[in-house]
Sequence to fold (239 residues):
Amino acid sequence: MEKPIVVANWKATKTIKETIEWVKDAKPSLGGIDYADIVICSPFTSLPALASLLDKSNVKVGAQNVSRFKKGAYTGEVTVEMLDGLAQYCIVGHSERRKYFGEKDDDVIEKVKNLLEHSITPVLCVSNLDQLDSYIERGQMIIQEAEKIIFVYEPPTAISGGGAYRPENPEEANNNAGKIEQKIGKEIAVIYGGSVNPSNVALFCSQTNIKGVLPGQASTDSDTFLSLLNAIRPSGLVK
Ligand code: PGA
Fold:
């Protein structure tokens, strides 16, 4: 059985100081985990600290966004070149970026292209199958380079948003993850995101089409995140 991928999305939480504290609390336990591939996606400002604190460890670092543009006159943007050496993964197309920042499918595709050119793994959020169709229509590399992409099936209605957990039914999520893989037409990594927490993570990870999870709220507190990882220790997993 392949290791589940666990991508923590801290969203807009954590100062540099809080990042250092989180790592201090979690690193000793995280270091002993060999049954999951762990990625922590922090705000840009915390990336240098995170990359240095987790250097040569089993835990990888990711960003939560990247500019669709390369170097140039784009005030306030963080380009893919700037992520080089800091992040090995980058979340793209999150529904919160669409909702609050007007991000469109064209932007998402440009970001995926930039990341692939720089060998940073895109963690591509897919809200539904229509959105996947639109991505494919705009960028054939979504299929051609699908092995280099982590697809996240993340229905916006299931996102906790820092409030109450409201996950999608795991069987339904499994079904939809399977449809994403079918549409891409090759073996790919599809993970699930939306209210994943220590109580439901094993259920999601035991679904045949779901290769891992993307917890938001449940990743920001180090103890909760470690409980989540404990819940998917292989002994507890049936696949
Ligand atoms: P959540 O967030 O786990 O708090 O629902 C997931 C996400 O939106 O990335």
